[in-house]
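Notes from the 1:1 (GR / supervisor)

We went over the backlog. Supervisor wanted to see one worked example end to end before approving the batch request, so GR pasted a single chain during the call. The sequence is below; no edits were made to it. Supervisor asked that the structure be written out right there so they could see what the output format looks like.
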Amino acid sequence: MAINVLYFAWVREAIGMGTERVQPPAHIVTIADLIDWLRGSSEGHGRALADIARLRAAIDQRFVALDTPIGNAHEIAIFPPVTGG
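Structure output shown during the call:
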């Protein structure tokens, strides 16, 4: 199943793109699994996704924990923590 992955802020800058369509293998079950798998996509992915504690995610525009199953997601966003001010 193909998933649109969106990247924001410094994650996007490090990877060098704002979105990509990926088809993860069947063993990729959670957001954390996906991030781990994506790290190997390029040097930029490796840098941006190296420290999972610095990342947050959303599935189909709903904030979720990184251990959330991907399920039938159409879109997954990966971004740094949101700060207010």
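Supervisor's comment: The radius of gyration is 12 Å.
Batch request approved.
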